[in-house]
Amino acid sequence: MPRVLSYTPAWLSRGAPGFEVFSQASSKAKSPRKFTNGATKLQKPGPKRTVAHRGNEIFVVVGSEIRWANLLHLRERGLPKDRRDLGRSWRSSRGGRESEELDEDQVYRILKTNVSGEITEISISPDEEYMAICTSHTVHIALLPDSAHLAAEDTGPIKLKTFQLGPTAHVLDQAPLASALWHPLGRHGRCLVTVTTDANVRLWEFSRENRVSFSEPELAIDLKKLASGVDSMEDFRASRIGDKTGFTPDSFEMAVAAAIFGTTGKKAERGWGPMTLWVAMKNGDIYALCPLLPRKWQYATQHVAPQYLRSLALPIQARVETLGTAEDEEFEQQTLDQQAEWFEGIRYELEDDPKTGEVLEVYSRPIAPGPIPRLQGPFIPDPDLDIDHELTDIIIVTPGRGHDDDHDYVDTAGDREDPNVAAICVVTSQGKMHIFIDFEGVEGQWLPREKASISTGGSCC
After folding, report:
1. CB atoms within 10 A of CB 438
2. Where is the segment annotated Disordered (predicted)?
3. Of all helices (H) and strands (E), which one includes residue 162?
């Protein structure tokens, strides 16, 4: 067995400059407001995600403030002076940005926001331009400052420009947030999916030039309605303010704990994963939505996009050729027909990347079979397993996910890996993790268009 030498690097230990970034004692920010009985306002159940990164930069929520630092600078500050000077000299010879002299008193910078309430989650957009800032009920999108501000002479707080997302959907008198996820295939990284505890999924495609895009979701799906749906023409829209909603058994059975996408959309990933949203319910049931796509979408690594689309098309074609005519294969035939129709409807247009100026292929979501997929599940991980506590989180691990940041990785082993295999990890309120292996995977499925077939069909008499 390997011997553990240390759990915390010396430059992050108590007394080192790096420790101050995470220290509550050094915070001058006010604590979250309390009610008259002393209880902290609107505590969110489940895990908190208060640390995010952008390359070497780290963002940490401490109290009601967000701290921003560079890990390389923090590590350098924790070294003896002779080693610190050597590191600066080496990076300067390589033209590194971190070679600039740092103010000896500067450890981190504070990012100020107009977010009220306790921040429970922060996450960086795929293009690293935005940050989602969440409280128990609200979501704000912040425009991140350029990295050069970390080395600027002015070390004072930076006021972030923020936009509230869903000013009527994500407010205190509506259901709390369960998850806020950046879509792996979002156009220019500007697509956020929010899931509330009342099983409503909203997909937002926002733009700073269009303020309405922060107020109205591109898709809004009520999973409780979708679970009992039989026809794709039904109304599955999430309820809005003023809509009358009564109690149903699904209100309890489909209380959402957390959600996650199947993969990150980086290279070496294949299959339906980047467009599959997994949703874990508090009672232990797990559901999947596939494909859940923005109106406009793109693959993160452009030169891999054709390979990715081919990884979807080839299995469809192979299964169509081998499928029999037995009655028990009727559903699979319907699924394959819908998948083929969906794939044939994929179109793309060329756009200029606003950051790099490169030409990008931006795809449009197919019109048919429809924008809202079938709700697959509930998947019961193990009928014999007694999960006697509520689920609080879900994690999906798939082949190729470990190569997200490996730019020299060549997908050779990936040809022998089944993209459908996934490890599904769920966490309970007692801190236990259960791990299950899914060998079949999830693929695109839609509800049938029953009404359309009835209206165009012939007489049954």
Report:
1. 19
2. 30-49
3. strand 161-165
